[in-house]
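fyi for ur records
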Amino acid sequence: MVAAGAALADEVGIAHLTMGLLAERVGVRTPSLYKHVGGQEDLNRRIAVLAIREAADAVGGAVQGYAGRDALAAAARAFRAFVLAHPGRYAATVGQEPADSDDPLAIQGARLLNAFTAVLHGYDIPEADVDHALRALRSLCHGFATLQAADGFQWSADVDESFEWLIAFADRGLRSYVQTE
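which gave:
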């Protein structure tokens, strides 16, 4: 049921996904869905877990065997490709809070974070600044991918060239980072 909901969210957007629409898609009456999910909030949360797991698989697999700029580029491209292919399910992840460290959302989120942390091992980022670097990478990747998925780039420059420019920009910034105290 969650996979069907995620696919539908990718089609119509997470904001437009309803239990009734999902029931119609899978050919059951809406009350039958409650055997599988606890309601709309539970469905959205399960879609978020699925999306983070899939994104972690994509990014984690992409960075294997790479370091430095190559790892950064592989991670950024994999993340962007995931968001563009699955905009609805990715949107379900925004704003979801894990209940505790055993929450599947936290477990999958840690996997995705670990994949991006592996990218940072190729740079001389002090341990005290890793969280800041991760937030910067997430902001760059998330921002670009979600804007592109929403057709937010309406000018003439090639979007792929802009994304490669962003990767080069992030790489230069990470390579030239000097801790200031």
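Residues 40-63 form the longest helix (24 residues). thats all i got for now
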